[in-house]
From TrEMBL:
Protein name: MarR family transcriptional regulator
Keyword annotations from UniProtKB, A to Z: DNA-binding, Transcription, Transcription regulation
The organism's place on the tree of life at top rank: Bacteria
Molecular function (Gene Ontology), one example: DNA-binding transcription factor activity
Domain HTH marR-type: 3-137
Pfam families in the record: MarR (PF01047)
Amino acid sequence: MSSSSLSETLHQLTHAYKKQLRETIKAHRIALPVTHIRALKGICRNPECTAQSIAQRMQRDKAQITRVVNELLQAQLIIKIDNPNDRRSQLLRPTPEGEKIMAQINTIEQQTAEHMTRQLQSDDLTTFIRIANTMSDSVNRS
């Protein structure tokens, strides 16, 4: 397989996955942009989460993440608490409503993955995950 067809295949796969997620999120009437969902996911998964750590993880500008965090605060999906390890920052935590939305998103992601892989054998899926992780790791090490 040439690298251009690999690139095209990866591009198509990424867009198919994102399209399926967007459509299902919209069908569930979750009115959050993707950036907000990614930030909320990071907040729910990391008890030591700060706006700075989200900006680093998402590779986004701190000002953009500050805007996203403020909008999540305004929507009452997260709260800020004092960081006992660093008084200059605040930890971000999900509210019960934020956790509820995140549970819905987790279910949607699982359903999307199951839908996209329903024609794959278990061994094929295991191989795909191993290869995809190897490719991601090679990018992250660069």
